[in-house]
């Protein structure tokens, strides 16, 4: 795991995102962080992140997670992010990589349901339990055979397992606010003094 791609994509003189200079975000090692950031960039998506080996493994989920086990949500794996990033909420300046508003939609910890996480990631099937404020219970990430439309990004599916936390309720519309600040995207945009770009949710 490396944060080189993360650093290469960003200008830390311009964006207020963490610069990845603090290993483990200056945190003592204990539980593994899980976070979902709602990100209004050129397209609205949800960034799903799991701490592993000192970084946040990251997937962009265009439609966000679903509590319905019959629904498979596309999750495109993107560059690893620093642990510090888990609590980042604010505005990435326009014309910068990922420019737009970021909300911490859910945060908590996760537990692997397998012994070898690295082997599970290589194999392309990771089962895990989430202990978030909004998302709980058993989930799986499954890598698909190949990218869609010739995309080189690694495509996975995020799926809820059947358990007592499964539901057909739309958690995204039922609980739209930041888990840290209770704000909606436009409130976060305004607080940073930024001009709202299509922040309509
Ligand atoms: Mn994003």
Write the layout of secondary structure elements.
Layout: H1 4-8, E1 32-40, E2 44-52, E3 55-61, E4 72-81, E5 90-92, E6 100-112, H2 117-123, E7 125-132, E8 136-143, E9 154-160, H3 171-174, H4 185-191
Antiparallel strand pairs: 1-2, 1-6, 2-3, 3-4, 4-9, 5-6, 6-7, 7-8, 8-9
Bound molecules: manganese (II) ion (MN).
Spatial order of the strands in the main sheet? 1-2-3-4-9-8-7-6
| Number of E strands | 9
Query: Helical segment tally?
Result: 4
Largest sheet: 8 strands, antiparallel, barrel
**Rg, Cα atoms, Å:** 16 Å
Instruction: Summarize the amount of helix as a percent range.
Output: 10-25%
Mean pLDDT comes to 90
**SSE ordering:** HEEEEEEHEEEHH
Q: What is the global morphology?
A: globular
Which regions contain 5 or more consecutive residues with pLDDT less than 50?
A: none
Termini Cα gap: 34 Å
Enumerate the distinct ligands.
manganese (II) ion
Measured by DSSP, the beta-strand proportion falls in: 35-45%
Structural class, by secondary structure, is: mainly beta
């Amino acid at each position: 795991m490396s944060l080189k791609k993360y650093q290469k994509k960003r200008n830390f003189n311009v964006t207020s995102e963490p610069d990845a200079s603090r290993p483990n975000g200056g945190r003592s090692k204990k539980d593994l962080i899980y976070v979902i950031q709602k990100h209004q960039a050129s397209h609205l998506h949800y960034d799903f992140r799991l701490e592993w080996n000192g970084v946040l493994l990251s997937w962009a989920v265009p439609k966000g997670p679903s509590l319905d086990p019959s629904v498979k949500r596309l999750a495109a794996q993107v560059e690893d992010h620093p642990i510090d990033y888990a609590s980042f909420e604010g505005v990435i300046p326009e014309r910068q990589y990922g420019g737009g508003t970021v909300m911490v939609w859910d945060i908590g910890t996760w537990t692997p349901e397998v012994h070898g996480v690295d082997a599970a990631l290589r194999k392309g099937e990771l089962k895990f339990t989430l202990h978030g404020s909004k998302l709980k219970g058993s989930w799986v990430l499954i890598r698909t055979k190949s990218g869609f439309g010739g995309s080189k990004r690694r495509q996975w599916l995020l799926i809820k397992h059947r358990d007592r936390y499964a539901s057909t309720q739309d958690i995204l519309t039922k609980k739209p606010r930041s888990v840290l600040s209770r704000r909606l995207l436009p409130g976060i945009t305004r607080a940073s003094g930024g001009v709202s770009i299509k922040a309509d949710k």
